[in-house]
Structure formats: C-alpha cells, structure tokens
C-alpha cells in the first residue's frame, strides 16, 4: 500500500483514477471486504455469523461502537433507540406538502434533510453529546419516516410506533397495520427483514457512504449528510438495483423469454440487474445468505412455485454457466434475491430502495462518526484532469 500523502506531498502530481477503482479515500476500522474471496466482515465478525446469530439493533451497536454489547449494554441501547422512534408531530405536516404520488425516495431525501430543522439541539458536531444524540435519532427515526413515506404515497393514515415490538416488527407494524386490523408479526418474516437490514447495514466506501463522508468532511450536520447519502443511494447502479431487478423480471415476463433476454445482455442492449459488483469478483457473500432467506420466506408463504421466482432461478442458472458472465466474474449480488424477498413480504417495489436506506443509515452514521472523531480529518477535495478549452477571450454577444 502506497501512502499517497507522503508520495505526493508538496508536489503538483496527483493520481487520475476515474470511479476510484484503486484509490483509498480514508482509513477505516468498520468493515472489511475481500472481493476476490467473496468475504465480508463487520468489525472483524463474518457477515454469515451476524446474519445467523445477531439481530439488526445489536449489529447497529457493533458498527457504531466497535464491539458487541453485553446484555446490559444491549438492553440500554434498545431502550434508547425505542425512546427516540417518534418524529416531531410537525413533520407530519411537512409530508402533506408532497404530491400524493411522490416516489417514497424523493420524500425520504427531503424529510431526512429537514430533520436538521426539527432537531436543532443536536447539530453542533464539535460536541460529542450532540453527535451521539443525532446518531441515535437517525437510527431510531428512520423506520418511522420510511413507513410514513409508504403510508403517505398510498393515501393511508400514519401508524405510530408500538414500543412492545422489536425494531423490525415495529417497522412492519408501521407499514402494514390498519385502523381495523393490527399487524400480527410473523417471526419468520420479521427475521427475514431483520436479516435484510443486517446484510445492508454497511459496505465500506460504496458510493453513498463516500457521499456521506464527503458531505460530512465540510462540517455539514449529520442529517444533511445522511440526506446526501440517500440521494446517492437512489441511483439504479447502487441502491436502486433491487427495484430494477423486479422491473427486469416483469419486463421479461416469462421463462420462455429468458434466452432471448440474455442474448440482448450479451449484445450490451441491457444489463442483467442484480449481477456484478465493483468489489466482489466472486460470489457476494450476502447473496448466498439472501438466497437461503428467500427459500425460507417463500416456503413460509407457500410461494415456492411463483412464476417470478422460477424466472429468477432460470436467469441465475444461465448466468452462472454462460462463459460471457463467468469470464467477467458477474455473480448475483445481494439485490438479486432481496427484491424477491421484499416482494414476498408485501413491500411494494417503490419502497425497496427506502428499505436499503433504512438499513444503511447505521453504516453511514458509523462512517460519519469515525471521520468526525479523527483529529487528522480534512475536507474531501478530489482533483481533476482538465480537458476543456485553452485560455480564450470573451466575445460580445452580437459578434458570436
Ligand atoms: N450485466 C451485464 N454485463 C455486465 C453487468 C451486468 N449487470 N455488470 C458488468 N457487466 C459487464 C460490462 O458490460 C463490462 O463488459 P466488457 O468488459 O465487455 O466491457 C464488464 O462486465 C465490466 O463491467 P463494469 O461496468 O466495468 O463493472 P463495474 O465494476 O464498473 O460495475 C456494477 C459494477 C455497476 C455493479 C455493474 O456490475 C452493474 O451495473 N450491475 C447491475 C446493477 C446492480 O446490480 N447493482 C447493484 C450493486 S450491489 C449494491 O449496490 C448493493
């Protein structure tokens, strides 16, 4: 590893690395990915063990603090997060300013950014207490806001959180309960969603996390930084991928059209959504866990024979055998299966990226926390390779 700071200190030289394929922008102790081996660790713990034995809030504690909590720390953390899960009542009015058919992600960007206007007692980032309370608020309120986005875009009344429920069951209650019928948590489905949250909680310097760090490097408040991360996540090459997977499956329509579609992919007329990854050049470890979760959920709901699932399996089979995909190391990523699971849980496609944002909030917060606490932290300021015009003189408009 070359330390760029020493190499180029005091010179005009810089690296040109479009898309940052080989440039580290920071040091971090949070998440480690071995893309060639297909391994992912949060704070040193393999993702497989966390997905099997931990729960999302415990994983949040681990990402934020660096260690797993003991029983008392776990209880205290859960209690603090529960205590912060309501949003300011005026925020419900804020929602009413949006068009009724607005995309939930469009509302998320706006509402999360607006939290800075509602929680002004946690904006002084030089104060560790302010920082900590802002972090708790973000983790606690994001499911409430996400569910509000869904309810608003469907013309449904908002559901307030119920504190006897777990973090994930509470989110499902806020999504699905009706005034006539309470939401009865199904442990298999709650566990599946909790696992989706764990798998999406962090992934080192991906585009949205880098966005949060870059925004935060200027000293911007944490709510504004997370709003920036949400905006970046919305893109189809990043968090929009599982939404794009379901759209792709709808467009293909039937197993009979799979061969023709794959030919189009090879001719570069379309991309196979949910396949490929910038870092994993082997199976995405999250994809294996998600595939198992997908089997469990479909079995629980009696949906193993659903046409969409069969279509997805037909695509996966071809992609894993066809030399075009094998040579390019294009394996299914986590989003290939998470879209199918979310759909089976009754979550509409327009909410998929919102769910990702909900889960990733703790990763963004943990990176923001790590960066702000670093005494050597500098404002992020990439260089550029200028390829525009040479110096030229201004021409008055009537002479152009
Ligand atoms: N379908 C078909 N071909 C692909 C795909 C794909 N999904 N991904 C890459 N390729 C091909 C490219 O056409 C290129 O082929 P070439 O060598 O003949 O030109 C080669 O594989 C390398 O592709 P790049 O675009 O250079 O790979 P990069 O690392 O930049 O892209 C990305 C990674 C953006 C994730 C890409 O694989 C993609 O678009 N995948 C689909 C979207 C998706 O699933 N995103 C989710 C990522 S996971 C996440 O955000 C949680």
From TrEMBL:
It holds the Pfam family Citrate_synt. InterPro entries: Citrate_synth-like_lrg_a-sub (IPR016142), Citrate_synth-like_sm_a-sub (IPR016143), Citrate_synthase (IPR002020), Citrate_synthase_AS (IPR019810), Citrate_synthase_bac-typ (IPR024176), Citrate_synthase_sf (IPR036969), Citrate_synthase_typ-I (IPR010953). Gene3D superfamilies: 2.20.28.60, Citrate Synthase, domain 1 (1.10.580.10), Cytochrome P450-Terp, domain 2 (1.10.230.10). PROSITE patterns: CITRATE_SYNTHASE. One of its GO terms (cellular component) is cytoplasm. Pathway: Carbohydrate metabolism; tricarboxylic acid cycle; isocitrate from oxaloacetate: step 1/2. Keywords: Acyltransferase, Membrane, Transferase, Transmembrane, Transmembrane helix, Tricarboxylic acid cycle. One of its GO terms (biological process) is tricarboxylic acid cycle. The gene is gltA. The chain crosses the membrane at residues 336-359. It comes from Paralysiella testudinis. This is Citrate synthase. It comes from the Bacteria. Belongs to the citrate synthase family. The lineage of its organism: Bacteria, Pseudomonadati, Pseudomonadota, Betaproteobacteria, Neisseriales. GO terms for molecular function: citrate synthase activity. It catalyses: oxaloacetate + acetyl-CoA + H2O = citrate + CoA + H(+). The active site is at residues 277, 335.
């Amino acid at each position: 590893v070359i330390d760029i700071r020493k190499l180029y200190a005091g010179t005009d030289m810089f690296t040109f690395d479009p898309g940052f394929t080989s440039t580290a922008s920071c040091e971090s102790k949070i998440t480690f990915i071995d893309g060639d081996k297909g391994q992912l660790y949060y704070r040193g713990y393999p993702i497989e063990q966390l997905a099997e034995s931990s729960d999302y809030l415990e994983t949040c504690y681990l990402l934020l603090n660096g260690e797993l909590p003991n029983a008392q720390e776990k209880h205290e953390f859960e209690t603090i997060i529960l205590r912060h899960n309501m949003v300011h009542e005026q925020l419900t009015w804020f929602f009413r300013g949006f068009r009724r058919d607005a995309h939930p992600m469009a509302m998320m960007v706006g509402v999360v950014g607006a939290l800075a206007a509602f929680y002004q007692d946690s904006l002084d980032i030089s104060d560790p207490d302010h920082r900590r309370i802002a972090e708790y608020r973000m983790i606690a309120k994001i499911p409430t806001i996400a569910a509000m986005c869904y309810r608003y875009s469907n013309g449904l009344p908002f559901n307030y959180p119920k504190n006897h429920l777990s973090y994930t069951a509470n989110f499902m209650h806020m999504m699905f309960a009706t005034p006539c019928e309470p939401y009865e948590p199904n442990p298999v489905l709650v566990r599946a969603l909790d696992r989706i949250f764990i798998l999406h909680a962090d992934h080192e310097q991906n585009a949205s996390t880098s966005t949060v760090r870059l925004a935060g490097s200027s000293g911007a408040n944490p709510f504004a930084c997370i709003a920036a991360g949400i905006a970046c996540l919305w893109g189809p090459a990043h968090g929009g991928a599982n939404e794009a997977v379901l759209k792709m499956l709808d467009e293909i329509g039937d197993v009979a059209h799979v061969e023709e579609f794959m030919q189009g992919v090879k001719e570069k007329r379309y991309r196979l959504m949910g396949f490929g990854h910038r870092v994993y050049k082997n199976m995405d470890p999250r994809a294996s866990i998600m595939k198992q979760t997908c089997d469990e959920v479909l079995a629980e709901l009696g949906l193993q024979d659903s046409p969409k699932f069969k279509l997805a399996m037909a695509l996966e089979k071809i992609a894993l055998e066809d030399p075009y995909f094998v040579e390019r190391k294009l394996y299914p990523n986590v989003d290939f299966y998470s879209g199918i699971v979310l759909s089976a849980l009754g979550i509409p496609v327009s909410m998929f990226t919102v769910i990702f944002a909900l889960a990733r909030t703790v990763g963004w917060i943990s990176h923001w926390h790590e960066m702000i606490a670093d005494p050597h932290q500098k404002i992020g300021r990439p260089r550029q390779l200028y390829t525009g015009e040479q110096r030229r003189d201004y021409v008055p408009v009537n002479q152009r």
